[in-house]
Amino acid sequence: MSKTMADNGVETGLMARLGMFRPSDKAALQAALLDSASRARALDAVREFVTIWENADWLEAYSIERIGKWIGKTLPPEIGLSLSAWSQENPSEARAALLNGLKAGLAQDSLAM
Fold it and tell me: In the chain, how many H helices and how many E strands?
């Protein structure tokens, strides 16, 4: 199996976890986002998940927003800030939902300090 195929498998698996977003999915996502070797693929999975919703006939903004909130609140700020910058590049309703969640999570994280 090529490295690209393996990477796509990781991204696909993480995208499925974003769709379910159970505690076990959050743990796997957190591990992937905190590991420098897998962080780029994990961020790609989040971006691809949002892009799929951008192209859908309807939008489940709440699901995207709660993922963003969790990322902003739980993970190091640079991860949330990276996704925030991406969300603002080509604005859409799906990216706005992610951005709103990230802002809420980052705000909660800064209040907790």
Answer: 6, 0
Q: How many CA atoms lie within 13 A of 77 on its CB side?
A: 7
Structure pTM? 0.86
* Ordered DSSP codes for 30-87: HHHHHSTTTHHHHHHHHHHHHHHHHTSSS--HHHHHHHHHHHHHHS-HHHHHHHHHHH
CA 6 from centroid of its chain's CA atoms: 20
Please count the other Cβ atoms lying within 10 Å of the Cβ belonging to residue 92: 15
Helix (H) or strand (E) holding 63: helix 61-74
Q: In the structure encoding, which two tokens stand for residue 25, read together?
A: 């999915």
CA distance 24 to 37: 20
Per-residue pLDDT of the chain in tens (113 residues, 90 and over written 9): 333 433 455 578 999 999 999 999 999 999 999 999 999 999 999 999 999 999 999 988 999 999 999 999 999 999 999 999 999 999 999 999 999 999 999 998 666 55
Single-letter code of the amino acid located at 27: A
Tokens of 37: 């070797």
